[in-house]
Amino acid sequence: MKYTYYGQSCFLIEAAGKKFLFDPFISPNGLAKHIDTSKIEADYILVSHGHGDHVADLVSLAKQTNAKVIAMPEVIAWAKAQGVTNTHDMNYGAQKFDFGKLRMVWAAHSSSMPDGSYGGNPAGFVLETGGKAIYFAGDTSLTVEMKLLAELYNLDYAILPIGGNYTMDVDDALISTRYFDCDKVIGVHYNTFPVIAIDTEAAIAKFNRENKVLLLPAIGETIDL
C-alpha cells in the first residue's frame, strides 16, 4: 500500500490494484505548484466535504480520470451539475465496493460548495482495502464520536488534520488517537495558509513522547504503508 501527499488534505492511496484520490485541491495551492495534475490517475475520488480547499480540482480530475466520485449527495449534485457522470452518493454508513468496504463517518465541521450552495454534512472515511483499515478524518474538531471507531475497527493508520483554527490541532489530534486506538498517524491540513502553520518538528516530538508515530511526508512524496 502506498500513500502520496499532494498538499493540504489531498492524497492518493494505492492498494489492491486501485487508486484512491482524496479531497482534490492541488492547482490553487502554491505549495503544490510542482505537481503536474495532468499525470494524476485515479479509480475513485473521495470527497469529505464541499469547501474549496477540498474540491477545487474535483471536476477537472473526475473528468480526466473518469474515476468514480464518492461523496455526500449534495456534493455529488454539485459535481453532476458541472458534467461529472461517474458518481456514488453516500451518507453516514458503510457500503461494499469492488475494492473492499467504505464507511462514511461523522466529522464536526461545516460544508458549503465554492458557489455558496449547501454542501451537506461534512464527513470522514474509513477505507478497508488491501488488508488494512485506514481512517481519514476529513476536516473535524476533536469529537467523542471518534470513540466508536475503536468498537468497529483495528485501525492501521489515521490520517488527521493537525493545523488547528478550522480543525483539530496537534494536541487534539494526539488525544483523538486514544479515542480510536491508533498509534500511526499521517498529518494533513497544515502549513497551507499562515493561520494553520505549525512547528512540524515539535509536532513529531509530541507524538514520539507518547510512543506514537506522526508522519509528515513532503508534497509529492510517496511512502509505503
UniProtKB/TrEMBL annotation:
InterPro entries: Metallo-B-lactamas, RibonucZ/Hydroxyglut_hydro, UPF0173, UPF0173_UPF0282_UlaG_hydrolase. The keyword Hydrolase applies. It comes from the Bacteria. Residues 7-189 form the Metallo-beta-lactamase domain. Keywords: Hydrolase. One of its GO terms (molecular function) is hydrolase activity. This is UPF0173 metal-dependent hydrolase GM920_15225.
